Batch of 2 targets.
Target 1
Amino acid sequence: MPGTTKRGTTRRTFVTGAALLSVLPLASARATPDAMAAAIKEVVGDNAIREGRMTLDLPPLIENGNAVPLTVSVESPMSEADHIKAIHVFNEKNPQPRVFDARLGPGNGKAAIGTRIKLGDSQKIVAIAETSKGEFFSASADVIVTLAACLEDLT
C-alpha cells in the first residue's frame, strides 16, 4: 500500500506524531536533583558511596555550556585484582541525569577520562567510580553556567 511503512504506519501518522513531539515544552524534559539521585541509585544500588580517591575537574564558572571540559581521575593500582571498572557521571538539570558511563579495565593503566559535556544550566555534577571489588567512590562539583546549552530558548 503506498505511503504505508512495513509496520502499517502511514507517513501522515508519523508526521503528525513528530509535530506533536516538537511542540512539547522543553522544561518537562529536564532532570531534577531527585532524578539524579534515582539514576545514581540505579548504578550503585544499596551500596555505600564513599568520598575520596577521585578528582573531578571542571571550571567552576562556565561562560558557554555548549562544550564544558571535564576530567575525572581515580587513584587506583589498575591491577587485575584491584582496578576501576567504570566511571559514571551524573548531572541534576540537563534533559537526562546520566551524562555518560566509561568502562575501564586493568589494561587502561590509569583510571582517568577527559571529555567535553553540554550543561543546560548551573548545577551540580557528580562522578562515581566503581571498583572491581564492588566499592563506589564519588566526587562532585558545582558549576555556574552563564549561557546554557541543551535547553536554550530558540524563539
Target 2
Amino acid sequence: MRGFPGFRKGPTHLTPIPTEFFSEILPIVDDLAELKTILYVFWRLSQGEGDVRYVRLDDALADLLYLSGLGAGPEAQEEVAREAFARAAQRGVLIEIEVKRGGRKETWYFLNSPKGRAAVQRLRKGDFTGLIHDIDDVVVGLEKERPNIFTLYEQNIGMVTPMLAEKLLQAERDYPETWIRDAFSLAVERNKRSWSYIHSILRNWAQYGKDTPAQTGKPLAASDVGDGDDDLGLLIYE
C-alpha cells in the first residue's frame, strides 16, 4: 500500500464539489474507476475558465497521473478510463456529446448541471461561442446511447437525477420495454407525470397481468400508491 505524507502546510488550492455528490452520487456509485473519474472531472472543470467548461476525452487519456490509478498497463488504463467516463454519463452525472473537429470526431463531457445542460443545448443549436476549442459541428448527443427509459423520462417528466437513475435502470431490468413505454404513455395521458405513478402501474401489471380481463379495471391497492398519488384510480389499458 502506497502511503500519503499528509497535506501541506499553508495555503491550499481547493476543488469545489457539489453537495449532491455526497448525498446522491457517492451512495450509488459502485465502481472505483467511475468514482475516481467523477472526482477527476470536478478537478478538471475547476481548472477551466469561463462559463462553457468541459473535459475532452482525449485530454483525459493523455493525463498520465489520472491514468496511473486505473490499471496496470497503458492499454488497460485507457480502456478502463473510457468505460468509467461512459458509466458516469450513463448514470447521469456527466453529459456526453460527440463533436466533429478538424475532420475527426471527439468525445466531450459536461457536468450534468444547469450550466452544463445549457451549454450542451447551445452547442446542439449550432452556437459554439465560449468554447476553448474550435469545432465544426456537434455529431451526436448522449440520448442516442443512454438507456431508453432515461430518454422517456426526460421527454415526459424532467431531468434524471443520479439517485433516480438507479431506480430507472432497475425498472428497465425488471419490466419489458413495451410495458415501460405504455406506462409512460398512460401516465402522460392521465397527467400524472411522476415516477412513483409510473412505477405503480408497472408493479400492478406485474402482479395482475397486462392486457388481460383480470387486469382491466383492476384498482391498485392503497399500499401500492405513494407520493400523493392516492387518486391513481383504475388502470384501464386501452
